[in-house]
Amino acid sequence: MRRPTQAQRLQNRAGRVRAGFTLMETALATVIIGVGVLALLESQQAFMRSNDWSTHSATGTYLANEIREMTRRLPKHDPVTGLWLEVQGGNTTVRGWGPDTGETVVSDFDDVDDLDGLTFGSDGTTDPSDGDLPGPIDAFGQIIPEILASGAVLTDEEGDALALQGWSQTVTVEKIDPYDTSVVRADGYQEPAVPPDFPGLAVHKFPLRVTVVVTYQAPREETTTEVARVVWIVP
Q: Is the pLDDT at 112 greater than 90, yes or no?
């Protein structure tokens, strides 16, 4: 059997060396794999952020439309006293706008203008004079509870259901010009008659524009974020 020559031995040795990975090749492979894993993680996080915002947007729109559905069954102004102008000592004051005396809970509000300036949120109080009430609420005025992932309702230490955490509904009611809905009129504004063709518009005859702004404050966050805004006109 012929012994391999020196050149053959060097060729075989080079072949054996080329069969493995060098340190540089290993480092490059590690970098490439690492970049791929980081890109996958970043895309996953971006998807989660997008999914969270979609969920929040749907929740915000739902909460705003609940207020809209609640106002569908309400008259514009108090069905008993209405909206009127009171003149005393030469001063004219609008009466009947906003919550009337004794109206302190949602079930007391019997007209649309009662809701002006109110906020229904989880940190609200039972005094409408400061503009805050417990909430958020649904179309029937009931507090919407916080539902856990298990399907159970979140309760406090006494077993009472807690409202949807971090969410609030702020309502603004404005009187607008019937001929130009972009023009806001004062609560006590009225159109004088112009004989013989225009009989005038009484203080309670104007359409109303209702705006509901839904905000969310995440846990351990100090600021709130506007999630949804719904505007409609009550003729």
A: yes
Tokens standing for residue 89? 């000592």
Report the 10 Å Cβ neighbour count for 14.
10
Among positive and negative, which fits the CA dihedral 208, 137, 168, 66?
A: negative
Q: Which helix (H) or strand (E) holds 67?
A: helix 23-71
Q: Where are the alpha helices (DSSP H) in the chain?
A: 6-18, 23-71
Rounded Cα distance between 142 and 164, Å, is 12
The DSSP output letter for 109 is: -
User: In degrees rounded to 5, what are phi and psi of residue 150?
Assistant: -75, -10
pLDDT in tens, 123-159: 544 444 445 688 899 999 999 988 887 888 887 777 7
Q: Which of 108, 117, 109, 114 is nearest to 96 (CA)?
A: 114
**Length of the chain counted residue by residue:** 235
Contact between 135 and 143 under an 8 Å Cβ cutoff? The reply is yes
- The pLDDT value recorded for residue 163 is 86
**Between residues 18 and 143, the one the model is more confident about:** 143
